[in-house]
Specification:
The structure is a homodimer of 343-residue chains. Chain A contains eleven helices and twelve strands. Helices cover 38% and strands 15% of the residues of chain A. In chain A, the strands form three sheets. The first copy, chain A, has a six-stranded parallel sheet, with helices on both faces. The longest helix of chain A is centred in the first third of the chain and has 16 residues, at 84-99. At the A-B interface, helix 4, helix 5, strand 2, helix 9 and helix 10 of A face helix 4, helix 5, strand 2, helix 9 and helix 10 of B. Strand 2 of chain A pairs antiparallel with strand 2 of chain B. Chain B binds a DNA duplex (30 and 30 nucleotides) through residues 1-5, 12-13, 15-17, 25-32, 34-35, 38-41, 44, 59-60, 62-69.
Chain lengths: 343, 343
DNA sequence: AGTGCTATGATAGACGGGTTCTTTTGTCTA
DNA sequence: TAGACAAAAGAACCCGTCTATCATAGCACT
C-alpha cells in the first residue's frame, strides 16, 4: 500500500477533510461554506466556520492551483533589485499586479554576471507563475535565438525588439530626442554626452538618440564620455569636460545622478549652470535626495509601463498571440538647469 | 460526470502522462527519467527525454508542491516598494533567498493606508509561501493582539518586540547612540533633531535614541523637528534652525536625504559645515546621488538583516518555535560633515 | 398524494508529480 | 530445464480542492 492518509493534524496543514470531520459534516459542505455557495443552512454554516477558525484552516494553494490551472502570480526576473531601472520596474508592476489581485514572484539573478534568457525562463517556469517578465538591462547572449516557452506569456523589458517575444520599455531613445530638441530650441549645438556603462541597454539607446539628434542637424557629435550611473562618475566626466572643452554649451547626462555630479563639477570649475553650461538628465530621480531640484530631465510613467508589461505577460482577454513592441514615451520636465547659451 | 480528461495538448500544459503516451512508456517511467532515478534502460531514457524535449514538458509546480508540501518561496508584504527601508529589505531578503534557492512572493499593500497584520497574514497565507515576512514600517493597529498563523513561520520586520512573533530589524535606536556618542566625543551638546514622519517606526526609535542620549548626559533636548524623509523637508528644517537657533552646534537628521537638504540650507544661510555646524544622517544612501559624499552617517548591514529575516521565516533546521527579537547594529561611517564645535 | 424546493451526504473524477507495491521480462547459474 | 535474481516497467494511489452527479430526507404548498 502507498502512504496511508494520516489523521494527525500536527504535522500536516489542515485540510477540508479535517474541518469536515471536526464539524461533523461532509467535505463538500465545507467546500460550499468556504466558497460562499448557497444551499447551506445557517446553523451548519456557522458550525463549519467555527471549526475552520479553531483548526486554523487555510485552503491549500497547491491544491487549488492544481485544480484550476492558475497561480495568480506573475514571475519577475531581474539582475539587481536596487538599480533604479529595476526598482521602478518592480514598483510599476506591483501596482498593476495589485489591481489584478495578483502577487509577484521575484527572482534576483546574479547581480553582476549576465544571464541568458533561456536560463531565466527555465528558472521562472519552475515557479508558480501565470506569466514571465524578464528585465533585460544588459543584452542577453541568446537574445536573437531565444524562443519563449509555449503556453506561458513572456515579456522582456528592454528596448530591443524581438520577433517572437513581446517587449515593453520606456522609450530610452525618444527621451534623448525630447531633451535634444529642447536644447536645440534654446540654441545649443555643442552638446556633450555623459553616458552609463556601455553594456547597459538603456545607455545604448539614450546615446543613440543623442547621436542621431545631432547628426540630423548635421552636427558632428563629440566623443561621448562613459560613466557608471553614479554621481561621482558624473562629477569626473564634468570635470574633464570643464577643463578640456571650452566650446560646449550643454551637457546631456544619461541619468539624473550623473547630471547632478556633473553640475557639481562644473560649479567647482568656476562655470555657472545654466548661464555658462546647460545640463540635462533623465529619470527625474533626484527629488528625494536633493533639495531644490533644478534639473531639467525626462520623467517616465513607470506605472503605465508596469501595466503594459503585466497585461501582456498575463493576457486576460484575447490579447494573446500577438507579438508587439511597446515603447512608452517620457515627459520633458523643464526646470532651471537649462537656458539660452552664452554668446 | 466530472470533467473529462482532455487529450488536446494545445490548451493544457504538458504533463508526464502526455510524455509517457508519446514515448510509449508508463507515467512513472517518465518520472524516473525526470528525477534521474536508476533502473531505466538507456534506450528508454533517451526515448523519454526526446519526447520531453519535443513536447516542451515542464514539471507542474502545483503538482509537486501538493505532493511534498513545500513551495520554495517566502512571502514578503510591504506597503511601498520604493521607500528606502523597504527597498533595502527586498534587496537583503533577495540575497538570502537566492542562497537558499528560493523565490520571493511579493505583495504590495496600499502605499498610503496602514494595514493590519491579520489582513496581511491572511493575504499572504493564500499564496505559495513557506514563510511570511511583514514589513511593519508603521505601527499596525492590531500589533498587540496579533497571533501568527500556526504552522507557518512568521517574521515582522520592525523595531517593536512582540511576545509571540519573531521580529528582526536594523537597530534604529542604537544608530542614534552611535552618532550621538560621536558628536559628544567631538564636544557637541546642543544637538538638534530633524526626524521623519512621526507615524514611522524607524523615526520613533531613531528619535528615542537621540533623546535618551541627551538625557543620559543631563542635556535638555530641544524641540525635535518633523520632516517627511525628503531632502526638501530637511532643507526647510535646516533653514528654520539656522535662523532660530544660534546655540546649536550640530544637527542629527534621521536620514541622509534630509541631512543633505539640511546641509544645503545651512550653507544657504551662510553657515559652514562642519566648521560652524556638524551634520549627521542615517542610511548611507547618498553615494549614487551626490558627488563627493561627505556625510557622516550610519550604515546598516542590510544583507545580514535579510539573512536573519529569511532564516527565521523559513526555519530549515530546528530553529522553529523560539520567538526572538533581533536587532542588527549599524556601523558608524565618519566622513567630513562633523568636526569639533566652534567655541 | 403529488410536486417542487432546499439541505445535505455519498461517491467519484480531475488536476500532475511522486512513491510504493506488484508484475513482467531478461539473464545467469545449477 | 528449472530456479534464482535483478532490471525494467506497470498499476495503484496520495496529496487537497473543486465540481458533477445522484440520492435522500424534510418541508411546504397545491
Amino acid at each position: 500500500m502507498a502512504r496511508r492518509p494520516s489523521n494527525d493534524t500536527s504535522s500536516r496543514p489542515v485540510s477540508m477533510a479535517d474541518v469536515a470531520r471536526a464539524a461533523g459534516v461532509s467535505q463538500q459542505t465545507v467546500s460550499r461554506v468556504a466558497n460562499g455557495l448557497p444551499n447551506v443552512n445557517e446553523q451548519t454554516r456557522q458550525r463549519v466556520q467555527a471549526a475552520m477558525q479553531e483548526l486554523g484552516f487555510r485552503p491549500s494553494y497547491a491544491g487549488r492551483s492544481l485544480r484550476d490551472g492558475r497561480y495568480h502570480s506573475v514571475g519577475l526576473c531581474v539582475n539587481d533589485v536596487t538599480k533604479f531601472g529595476n526598482l521602478s520596474m518592480i514598483d510599476g508592476i506591483a501596482s498593476a499586479a495589485r489591481e489584478h489581485n495578483c502577487a509577484i514572484t521575484l527572482v534576483e539573478m546574479s547581480k553582476t554576471e549576465e544571464f541568458s534568457l533561456a536560463e531565466a525562463t527555465r528558472r521562472m517556469a519552475a515557479l508558480p507563475v501565470d506569466g514571465i517578465i524578464i528585465g533585460m538591462s544588459r543584452m542577453a547572449p541568446d537574445f536573437e535565438t531565444f524562443d519563449p516557452l509555449p503556453g506561458i506569456g513572456t515579456v522582456i523589458v528592454t528596448m530591443y525588439a524581438h520577433p517572437r517575444v513581446t517587449t515593453v520599455d520606456s522609450d530610452h531613445y525618444g527621451c534623448s530626442l525630447l531633451l535634444m530638441d529642447h536644447l536645440f530650441e534654446l540654441g545649443h549645438e555643442q552638446i556633450r554626452y555623459i553616458g552609463g556603462p556601455s553594456f547597459s541597454v538603456d545607455e545604448q539607446f539614450r546615446r543613440a538618440g543623442w547621436q542621431d539628434a545631432l547628426e540630423r542637424k548635421h552636427i558632428e557629435p563629440a566623443e561621448p564620455l562613459e560613466g557608471d550611473w553614479s554621481a561621482n562618475s558624473g562629477y569626473e566626466a564634468g570635470r574633464y569636460l570643464a577643463e578640456h572643452d571650452r566650446t560646449m554649451t550643454a551637457i546631456y547626462a544619461a541619468n539624473d545622478q550623473m547630471a547632478n555630479g556633473a553640475i557639481a563639477a562644473l560649479r567647482d570649475s568656476g562655470l555657472r549652470v545654466p548661464e555658462d553650461v546647460s545640463v540635462v538628465g533623465v529619470d527625474d530621480s533626484l527629488d528625494d535626495f536633493v533639495a531644490h531640484n533644478e534639473l531639467t530631465t525626462v520623467r517616465f510613467d513607470l506605472h503605465q509601463r508596469g501595466r503594459e508589461v503585466f497585461e501582456h505577460a498575463v493576457p486576460e482577454a484575447g490579447t494573446a498571440g500577438k507579438t508587439v513592441a511597446i515603447r512608452i514615451p517620457g515627459q520633458l520636465i523643464i526646470r532651471h538647469s537649462t537656458a539660452i547659451p552664452r554668446t
